[in-house]
Amino acid sequence: MKLSDNLAVLLFLQTDFSFEQIVQDHQAMVFRTLMRLTGSREHIDDLAQEVFLRLYRALPAFRGEALLTTYLYRITVNVAQDEWKRRRRDDRTHISLSDDTSGWEDRLAHPDRNAEQQIEEREFQQAVEEQLQQLSHMERTILVLYHQEERTYEQIAYALGMPIGTIRTHLHRGRKKLREALQQRQTQERRATCTNH
Amino acid sequence: MHEPLNPEDRSQSPSPFDSEHLDQRIVRALETAPQPQIRADFAARVAGQLPATRPVSLTPRHYGQYATLIGAVVTLAALVILSAHSTRPSFGLLESLLFAQFIALAVWLSVWRYGLR
Predict the structure, then answer these.
(1) In chain A, how long is the greatest CA-to-CA distance?
(2) A-chain residues within 8 Å CB-CB of B11?
């Protein structure tokens, strides 16, 4: 993976190797990371495009000391940060992932589970998404890179330009906040159920 | 003697099992990646938006190498001029310094050229 990734860049730098191929190889990763980090499908196409254009401009500076994917995560996180800043400026409400009628949670349904379990699982997934958006940008980014993208501490540290210890702290704190928020939510739901019965 | 917990108490203090189960569900939810819908022509569109010329720094300029080369030539010329005008049979301090500088520049250039750095 590392060899082929970096080979592609070297070929690109030395010859007329197609940049389109690099985009094709990494577009799914960039799209899903951006979706999770921004919590929205809005402008996702434009943001992904921006990531690859920045990568193109930055490739001459790429010295191969890290995986191309790690380098790409760094750019993706920067683009997501710019998007957060833009939203804060615009002070606009964003469309949640779950607002989309063809929401990706629908596709999570396991064929063997019964309808009730599927609904419960979908609601839980939605709750996690909502709480994820309540975390700080850094905690959210680290949780997404660690759990969803399965990056190592070293790779995350490189991508975010932070010491590994700080990554661990943010990861632990992010998970704790998420657990507490969901626990609180579950408690409220149980109370509501008890009151209804 | 433990009094049984009433439903309300139980709802307010989740058991360790609940907590562990919740952790597992959270991790599972976090590990479930969204599956974005990407247009089939996305890569082609990005490639179409790239500037016609490659990024400037793709063509290395080698300014440092040129400066080193000029320095070596100047040092060598100075050495030749000094030796032509020297009345002493042996190397003086200035000649020794220039010679050492020339050797250092020559070594640096050859190492750089053959990528042994």
Answers:
(1) 71
(2) 187, 190-191, 194
> Hey, what domains does chain A have and what are their CATH numbers?
1-95 (1.10.1740.10)
Residue-wise pLDDT for B100-115, tens only, equals 999 999 888 887 766 5
Euclidean distance between CA atoms A138 and A142, whole angstroms: 6
Under an 8 A CB cutoff, do B58 and A148 touch? no
SS3 content of chain A, % helix, strand, coil (to 5): 80, 0, 20
Tell me the C-alpha distance between B117 and B111, whole Å: 6
Q: How far is CA A110 from CA A114, A121, A122, B24, in A?
A: 9, 10, 10, 17
Instruction: Pick from A18, A19, A51 the residue to mutate for testing the B interface (most B CBs within 10 Å).
Output: A19
Which among B10, B11, B57 is the top mutation candidate for probing chain A, defined by the most A β-carbons within 10 Å of its own β-carbon? Answer: B11
Rounded CA gap, B84 and A66, in Å?
Answer: 54
Q: Are A148 and B31 inside 8 Å of each other by CB?
A: yes
Q: What confidence score (pLDDT) does residue A1 get?
A: 43
Distance CA A91, CA B9 (A): 41
Smallest Cα distance from B25 to chain A, Å: 8
CA atoms of A116 and A94, how far apart (whole Å): 29
The b/e string for B57-72 (b: 16+ C-beta within 10 A; e otherwise) is eeeeeeeeeeebeebb
The total of other beta-carbon atoms located within 10 Å of residue B11's CB is 18
Residues from chain B contacting residue A59 (CB–CB below 8 Å): 55
Which single residue is written with the structure tokens 């750019």? A75
pLDDT along chain A (197 residues), means of 10: 53 62 92 91 90 88 74 92 85 53 51 73 88 92 94 91 94 93 83 72
pTM of the shown model: 0.63
